Amino acid sequence: MTFNKNKIGTSLLIALCAAALPLSAMAAEDSDAMKKAESMYARLSNKNQKQVAAQFREVIRTEPDNAKAHYRLGAVLASMDEYDTAILECKQAVKLDAKAHIPHVILGQIYANQNKMNEAAKEFEQAVALKDTSFRAWMDLGLVYAKLNKIDDAIRAYTKAGALKDKDPMPHMNLGVLYDSKGDFKKAIEEGNVAAKLDNGRNDLILMNLGNVYADAKEDDKAIDAYKNALKINGANALTHCGLGWVYERKGDMAQAIKEQKTAMKLAPQYPRPVYRYAAVLASQGKTKEAEMEYKRSLSLKAKDPMAIVEYSNFLKSQNREEEAKKLLQSAQIAKEGNSKAGN
Description:
Elements: H1 32-42, H2 49-62, H3 67-79, H4 83-96, H5 102-113, H6 117-130, H7 135-147, H8 151-164, H9 170-181, H10 185-199, H11 204-216, H12 220-233, H13 238-251, H14 254-267, H15 273-284, H16 288-300, H17 306-318, H18 322-341
Helix pairs in contact: 1-2, 2-3, 3-4, 3-5, 4-5, 5-6, 5-7, 6-7, 7-8, 8-9, 9-10, 9-11, 10-11, 11-12, 11-13, 12-13, 13-14, 13-15, 14-15, 15-16, 15-17, 16-17, 17-18
């Protein structure tokens, strides 16, 4: 089992709250109403979203050709999940100022939030074409490419982002994830360690991903060290406990593996991975009935993980229940195709 290859992009970061886009300096020619709106935007929070949106609408009422007011309003509306109107505002901004890259970033983030990755990619590509030095746009483009399984394109995007901000650890963490997905463990480990050095022990996610890379490279002792260091920062991360349990399982320390997976299950009751990893430990101990119950439970949880089906089918095969395993995989494929036809 690997953590990163199952679902590329789950460990990558994107700022999908469009209102978090950077605030540029107020132009001297901005009206008083626009200056007020920009000042409010700088302090945007869940509590004042409606007021900030109202202020930008007031600007647009008297300044209908103010492109910045339109895309700022679009960003605020996006942060409120009012995507349809946000899209209209950003498209109006593009009409008014064809050289502005920010409306394309906001549109890309909205489409990414809606899982419209092809549309998102086009917007981010347009954003970086208009402003090659936009760190945010390159980071978001990297994620979308990863989601589209365009791994080499994603690597190029994150490499560009890393060059723009050479002290930021996130491009390197994401590059580590991507190289890991390609099986290039040497580069994955190198990038993961660069990220960890730049971060200097502040973000447990970076160390957790480094643990994942070491685990996939089968450098188990280094993986354990990375996971434990991540837990020193945030002991409540179910993913880290699950990863640590998986490595202990592989090393044959089943008692510690069970302890870690039970901790992960307690922290994230609806997360399937620690459940089917716990089932695997039970199966290795000959507790087949208990193991099957846990495999079935992993499939019934609210959160879904395709690997739960794969792991359960492998268990059935190990019990010489080939026909049941085949039917399970077939039913999963039928369900996937049905959802696709339904547009889900």
